[in-house]
Amino acid sequence: MATTLTICSWLLAALGTGVTVWLCPHPLMFLPYIFLGLAIRAARRLATRAFVLVFTLASASVGFWYCWDAAYVHRSTLNLTPLVVVVVESLIAGGTWRVVRHIERARHEDAA
């Protein structure tokens, strides 16, 4: 089960990166996926991997929604700039990574 969650997280991160390359190839738009990749690699427990999967799905969904709207609809419907979306997604992804690191470090300290 844990392997399945990790694979799903990696696939969602790859899908989000692919959508970003296809629809909105701004260099800063890849920053959340770097943080999510770090979170996916750091997750060891089953519950932590599920947590990372949920936030990877949320980040990929927000990125797809923004990029699709910016590419095919009109920028005026969201009134967002790429920087705002990158900051929000990066805060979510960076926070996810920090929480995962904290959980995994606490686990190792308890074991020692």
Helix content: over 70%
Work out the strand percent.
under 5%
Provide the structure class: mainly alpha
| Average pLDDT number | 84
User: How many strand elements?
Assistant: 0
N to C succession of SSEs: HHHH
What characterizes the major β-sheet?
Answer: none
Radius of gyration, CA atoms, in whole angstroms = 15 Å
Regarding quaternary structure, how should these chains be classified? single chain
Query: What would the principal axes of the Cα set say about the shape?
Result: elongated
Total of DSSP H or I helical runs spanning 4+ residues: 4
| Whole-number count of domains | 1
Brief summary:
The protein has one domain. Helices cover 81% and strands 0% of the residues.
